[in-house]
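Schema walkthrough. Field components (list of strings):
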Amino acid sequence: MNQVNRLPRGGRVDRSHPLNFTFNGKQYVGCVGDTLASALLANGVDVVNRSFKYSRPRGIVAAGAEEPNAVVQLGASEAAQVPNVRATQQALYEGLTARSTNGWPNVQRDLMGMVGKLGGTFMPPGFYYKTFMAPASLWMTYEKYIRKSAGLGRSPTEPDPDSYEHINQHCDVLIIGAGPAGLAAAITAARSGARVILCDEQEEMGGSLLDSRELIDGAPAVQWSDRVLDELNAMGNVTLLPRTTANGYHDHNFVTLHERRTEHLADSAPSFGSRRQARSRMHRIRAKQVVLATGAHERPLVYANNDVPGNLLAGAVSTYVRRYGVVPGQKLVLSATNDHAYRAALDWHEAGREVVAIADARANPKGDLVDKAQSLGIRIIAQSAVIEAKGADRVSGARVAKIEIESFKVVGGVEELACDTIASSGGYSPVIHLSSHTGTRPTWRDDILGFVPGEVKGLTPAGGARGVYPLGDTIRDGAEAGAQATQAAGIDAGAMALPQITARQDGQACALYQVPHLKPAMRAPKQFVDLQNDVTAAGIELATREGFESIEHVKRYTAMGFGTDQGKLGNINGMAIAARCLNRSIPEVGTTVFRPNYTPVTFGAIVGRHCRELFDPERYTALHQWHVEHGAEFEDVGQWKRPWYFPRTVNGKKETMHEAVARECLAVRERVGILDASTLGKIDIQGPDAREFLGRVYTNKWAKLAPGRVRYGLMCKDDGMLMDDGTTSCLGENHFLMTTTTGGAAGVMEWLELWHQTEWPELDVYFTSVTDHWATMTVTGPDARKLLAEVTDIDLDKDQFKFMDWREGTVAGVPARVFRISFTGELAYEINVQANYAMHVWTTLFEHGEKYDLTPYGTETMHVLRAEKGLIIVGQDTDGSVTPEDLGMQWAIGYDKPYSWIGKRALSRPDTRRTDRKQFVGLKPKDPNVVLEEGAQIVFDPNQSIPMSMVGHVTSSYYSPTLGHGFALAVVKGGHERMGETVYLPMVDGKVHEAEIVSPVFLDPKGERQNV
Amino acid sequence: MFHIYCPYCEEHREEEEFHPKGQAHIQRPEDPEACSDETWGDYLFFRDNPRGVHHELWVHAVGCRKFFNITRHTVSYEILETYKMGEQPSVTAKSLSEKDKQAGVQAASGGWQTVGARPESDALNKGARV
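Field assembly_structure (string):
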């Protein structure tokens, strides 16, 4: 065991259970209870990464979520790769394998480091944009190399073997954070009987109590937290969620909690028997009340070379010593602005290592901890700070000088102290992130030198999260917040008996962010503000000099706070520096808004089970199984799976789509085909005013449609643009059946309800969606009548059952409605039967259809057949900017209807009356072998210089096996008046196609085939 | 994600069950043919975008399928009130404007359609415009 920095005793790690792990290919040993960070520090690993921009060596700075440097790539196998893991939050397990995310060829010997050293001084903010700006076309090339040398990890190239879950939960009080305030809030709420959820992001609950020096009721603080946790654990109304980060606070107290269930055990979720555990759970919580007990993050001081490994947060030093039994060095210099930071020196000293000095920025430090340090003989240098760290891969010394904060100057001589660790503390920033996720601005408080949460309904901040720091006060504040939240949730809460804590006397902290240097910031060694994005104090100065005054602009120019740590350490320091440069106060400069997620969340947890076959619901028709068995290729239409075409195998070779579609088209035109049209939207409309309602929502007339008749209708929005079409049949005087496009079904249903409920509630009419109740089979082709006659009792005589009639009867022995409507231009019957009879009817039709060579066809053939007839598909040939007149469908517009139907008034607006509107036409390519590209732009003059005047585009285009040439539907400016004219379609490859504007009806313009 | 009280179902449900349908209280002119192009254009295309109180039309799409109105604060996203179709809001920009000023929020004109509205709404419209 070579854990050079591991103390022989103390801390909450189990030294009797060593764990082997690998970092950057090297084997190490840690203990149960370690984080990856504490284990690396125990093993004396200084450099854990290279910095993002300058490739400077970086070490561990913090002990929690705020860590900016120790971001690692985790995973032993390719499938288990996880980028972006903070070593400070990753529990150690046997066999853990991690790598640095930056550094090439490796972190110790980094090539870009040389560039960083040489180029460092010449790489101000905006460097990449300024340097690689021209020529713009080369940016893609530069970027590839820049990306290679930077970045924060990579995603796995193999599928993730793990599964993730979502859980919806409700509770009375959700408490975020299980430190002293959170525990006090939880126990207060829980004892009242409220439903409580308590979550905490760390491996162990207890927060700051886990490394506290203080006594509660005369015993170590952690004993109190253990007692409280035991009590909470035993209560049925409490859910404890350790290893669970509240990553997002959303509207109306909707909070997402990311619970990591197995990431402390292995890099992939272990199995119990045949069952693999869910790797993580996303709890979607709707809480009546939320208590924000997220504590505070310590701020580092900004001094020269403050990024050299060995520079740590003072509090992190205490955490490593007291909680993990690791002293991350031999000789410590502490630079502090407050009493609480003195803990680092005391803990270091008690661990038996040397504290060289404490540089305190205050002129006259006073307080219990200061006294204690003095009594231990630790040297305290007042009114001073570490102005510069010495060393390259590890701190070798600290330059300490007397400073004057008001004038921002070094006022005394510089003393260089030999040391290998510098701990700094510039005060504490409440962890307010969640409170600002919904847009609430935090408030600056001068007395605590930090932002506290703004007022958010249903959210009560407590303890450190609102700047209450002394332990006793924190517990009282938590208990009060818990009681307040419980009351607000409508439950009576009693007061908690507060434990006995001897209040520590602390001196007033002073406000210091950036430490002055002998040289101005621009010339001094780099003073890092945001370690993850390599933003320096000089960079922020430069930004303000270049005219960026808003902190949001400074942030975007320098990239401060844009890292995966969201500037948890650096943002306040950055604002303070901007404020100093602009001669304003911090609240005047303002703060930036934090957004979800608080710490990075793996995509798996966000997706949960909504992936692969469960990504989106799939809808099947009643005939789906038949289609599958008959080799159909499927097309997604909305959520429906529709047969696209039915390829046959001819002479051992499977047909291509083109071959199958040609065969299916000819079968329909020459014999008979059948289509599963069940996905068409169907709305049953009933009521005395049903007819009047139809007249208002459709453009055409419905007053005289008799029972037994069917009519095609166009539906517009009130702007006159077509939104849907379909047929509606009169089933009885007060009863109609409307059909809609497959994709438009739900939207049309809502549209009808909208108008009925908001504009015409006086109309007595009711709508019911019956899409799934009826299966629809279209039998179409010259032999359709002969085939149907074999299986129905309905009189199919052409004079009795005319085109656009419907009849009720039986088909294959089951009750059916048969509609004589045609979307192919051929004789056609749409057979509707109750969905659960569909398979019987379908197979019966095939039994009888064999002699007619009954051919199933899919949506592609349907498209070709309807396009040959110039029949539109809403959403393909229209796009929300097309009126019925643009389509040449004046015949379907009832201008003289008494009620001003939806869309009518808009059709007389100047814009809809323009004669150069894009109008619906057919296009016949001059070359019969050409099939134009759908979406191709149309021009009148092929020789016009670029940019050419585009006058329309192709909306549908196919090869017609019936016509023997390609053909297209299109919209062209003024197209109706341009019949016979030639237009041009310049293609990406330089070719220019020629086409003639023709009628969109390519086949049987008189409709003789469907009227037989 | 909003937590919305459906005034018909009389309970709070998750936003996923609802669809937003834009600004509320926009009435189709009684006689469209008598409208000028400008008035009709206003009715079709012009909507308020207040910073503050906004009355919105929503539908409980996968619940009771009823349309209803929500009064929502566009800064805090707080839902101040929900009410049935045909009812008038009790919380308006005017009723909240003093409170808004105190909170440093710019008082909004409120989500009231003035052009193309029926005459009986005029008084309400005027009242809402502070």
